[in-house]
Amino acid sequence: MSSFDNIPAGIRHRVRTPDGVEIEAREWGDPQGPELLLVTGVAQSYLSFARQYADPAFQQFRVVSYDPRGHGLSDKPLGDEWYRTGRRWSDEVTAVMDAVGLRRPVLAGWSLGGRIVRQYLVDYGDSRLAGIGLISCRPVEVPEVVGNGNEVVMALDIEDEASQISVAAAFLRNCFKTRPEADDFAFMLAYNVLCPWSIRRQIGGWLTDPAVSTAALEAVRAPTYIAHGLDDVLVLPGASKISERLISHAEVSWYEDCGHSVFFEAAERFNREFSDFVRRATASTGEDRRTVG
Asked: Where are the domains of the chain?
């Protein structure tokens, strides 16, 4: 049985961003529960978090996720300007929060999603957030934390369709230390190739001044959870060590024998730790709407 067989369909939302891009968003769980907004990685999908949506612990939350621009069922405008301006990514987060009525969520991002969370912090700060999750990501984009697993996608000017699929599969394999079962991998590859290769190139050119990112992380006051696999070959664990240094109050969880996708590879542990973090973060701000008077 595939991990994706039992995902509830969720409530569908179409969200228009300030620059006119339509975003595909879904929500699951208790509409009155603590709020959690999950942001996925490059060439991925809201479906990436299948093992969270299906977990009873997460069904106690109001969980929202979406396909970022260029991904999944969201609009896919072409051109560098749509993907290389940081404010477009942070405004996308805000548009989703406003459209679905999130008041004070925990905002968590994996891989590219962590950079999107970082951009939100740069442009908006954390005053609207109950907490922050940084999952296998490099919010401060210094080159020394880029792993050699990225070498498979260094040539983003590939035009041959078969080569693009082959490279996409190689990149996806590098997202894991323990490779998913064949049915799971096939499902993941399908939503990976929904992101056009030209858009992968355009996203690849989005970089933020490390000094700007450093200042944004140093300003974080919201509860923060950082998770990283010690065998990640895409984003090296040193990236999360930088985040840990800049957000001194963060809770940090290192996952042995895990690669880039700790929430999938070690789902039972991740779900236990992260759901506990979400409950504590939202309880400290009174954002469980079942208890708000």
From this structure: 11-283
